[in-house]
Amino acid sequence: MAHGSHKTFEKPAADLANKSILVTGGTGSFGNALVRRLLRTSQAGKLIVFSRDEQKQHAMALALQSEFPDQFGRLRFFIGDVRDAGRLELAMRDIEVVVHAAALKIVPTAEYNPFECILTNVHGAENVVKAALRVGVAKVIALSTDKAASPINLYGASKLAADKIMVAANNLSGDNGPRFAVVRYGNVIGSRGSVVPLFEDMVRRGVKAIPITDDRMTRFWITLDQGVAFVLSSLAIMQGGEVFVPKIPSMRLVDLANAIAPGIPHQIVGIRPGEKLHEVMITEDDARMTVELADRYVIRPPSLEWNDSHLVAFGAKPVAEGFRYSSEHNSEWLDGPGLAGLLDNAA
Asked: pLDDT tens string for the chain (347 positions)?
């Protein structure tokens, strides 16, 4: 079994020297990790954290001021909501790169609050596009999810709509306007809402059984650091219109539970509404527009005017007819030691 813990997605690196960068949803797990990476390793200029929770911004500012006292002057914190187009436009003034990470992500929450999900995930994406076009940023890269491929829940459907908005935005930007692209990946180990900290908390509390929805269930896994590196490397090679998909390992949920909570029995509780048995990141229909690189796949936009010579330079080649990238038919699998390596790297 491939452990998957050494994949870094570090190259090519985006040239962010003196660039001003805005991160929507910047106080979330990904935003925190991205900002820390940029403060630690890049020569980026101004970094703006855009989010709607003042308490999270305050806590993040205190932590970063302590952790990066010499770099803290590059940071700005901007209270705002992606539902507010005017506020986004103000925040994007003099910004060159936007990383759009804001979203409502919890599947049951979206199912129960559909209007709120659409306002943030779909209209929010539209507002990011409009603000970027009006202000004239250089690049926008948006975070998506494996649940956007053949969605069966509202969260996935809303993110598919957001992906389509981002890809189509390139048709509106003209020859010299902003370029828009998407990254799509699976479950993030260690992020808020991940099943990993949930299982770990259950072990600490001494539960008598670990709840498993279905013993056949599989998922894709990536660490926060890998996710950040993947976004930055995709930012470096994007032309506009791509959906970037990393090559990452799968793991059965029962194997995950056994690795985190060895010896604790499982209780099968059934699949929740809107949940899939397996996740998909590239469907057979998308495969016709997909090329493969060493560490990722790229779904090209459905445009005859799109030029993929930049991807050919990185060794891109078309995937096979009928290709499907799904968590149950992955060529790369995690076992217990592989998961331990990922958790060590995520710590």
From this structure: 445 445 778 777 778 999 999 999 999 999 999 999 999 988 899 999 999 999 999 999 999 999 999 999 999 999 999 999 999 999 999 999 999 999 999 998 999 999 999 999 999 999 999 999 999 999 999 999 999 999 999 999 999 999 999 999 999 998 889 999 999 998 898 677 678 888 888 999 999 999 999 999 999 999 999 999 999 999 999 999 999 999 999 999 999 999 888 889 999 999 888 889 999 999 999 999 999 999 999 999 987 677 788 888 888 999 999 999 999 999 999 988 888 777 776 65
Q: What is the distance between the terminal CA atoms of the chain, rounded to a whole angstrom?
A: 22
The residues annotated as belonging to the active site are 147
Alpha carbon distance 232, 50 (integer Å): 18
Retrieve residue 288's tokens.
Answer: 């016709």
Paired tokens of 108: 């049951």
Structure tokens at 146: 């494996």
∠ CA 44-47-51, rounded to 5°: 155
Put residue 316 in one of left, alpha, beta given phi > 0 → left and psi -120 to 50 → alpha.
Answer: beta
Tell me the C-alpha distance between 47 and 121, whole Å: 23
Contacts 24+ apart (CB under 8 A), 300-308: 300/241, 300/242, 301/167, 301/170, 301/240, 301/241, 301/242, 303/171, 303/241, 306/239, 306/241, 307/239, 308/239
- Within 8 A by CB and 6+ apart from 18, the residues are 43, 44, 45
Residue 299 — φ and ψ, nearest 5°? -85, 115
Residues 133, 172 contacting (CB under 8 angstroms): yes
Residue 194 corresponds to which amino acid? Answer: S
Domains of the chain from N-terminus onward:
21-191+221-251+280-329 (3.40.50.720)
The CA distance from 340 to 256, in Å, is 10
How many Cβ atoms from other residues are within 10 Å of residue 45's Cβ? 14
